[in-house]
Amino acid sequence: MTKKIYALLFAILLMLLVFPVVVQSARDRLSGYTVAHSMPLDVSRGIPILMYHKVNPDPTAGGYGLRVTPRVFERDMRYLKTNGFHTVSLLDLADHFNRGTPLPARPVVITFDDGYLDNYTYAFPILKKYGMTAIIFVVADTVGGINSFDYNNRRQPLNHMAGWGELREMARAGITIGSHTLTHPHLAEVSPDIARQEIADSKKKLEQGLGGKVEFFCYPYGSYNFLTAQLVQESGYVAAVTIEQGLGRKEDGLFTLRRIRIRGDYTQATFLHELTRYYREPAGGR
Prior knowledge:
By secondary structure, this protein is an alpha/beta fold.
């Protein structure tokens, strides 16, 4: 009799744990269908450039501000794939803005900041599964090490960074590697000489380690000004992204492209809202 009671209690507990997940999953699928099939996306207004950082199931790796779980990341990629979105590179975007080179229907750029090892461990297999590409902006002096730029001042827990082997493997598979400086400083707050060194020397170091060109840049902490943007261009980069929110637009300039931040606590409905919100704004909106 006691065993039957325990079995019944276990079954009830299991239902309480599983049912909310099933309901949320169904709600997410319904929300995704509604948004995807009811709204045309006018790419002449801009291209969504999604901003991720960590893709990691371990809560000790950091909060949902910078971390999405592999399950959530796959949900996002699956939605994009099944609803006609096509990932393009920043080079594709630059060619489109500069020369009018056509883009596929519903283009989207996937970006990762910092160069965490979990990008290789968890995100890379998911990207390959759905036939997608992305760009990872790497802090050059931390390759194969830890996130010293955030860990040393207690902004984030310790995280391991991708090594040269992982970066080269991803690059061979079509993942673009970009620069996120040497040490991840606030570029607008350092001297012009230090800013130039961080921008130019990181490019050289990454190119040497990868054996290929590094053509794209990301401003750490979103910290930049007119001078730093000019230094990025003078150092031979093709384009650069900020953390300012909005679509990537030609009129904003190739060296100050806006992005859309994706958090780990977004439901699929929130993800879709962020993905499409700037298309719903009046003309001229960000």
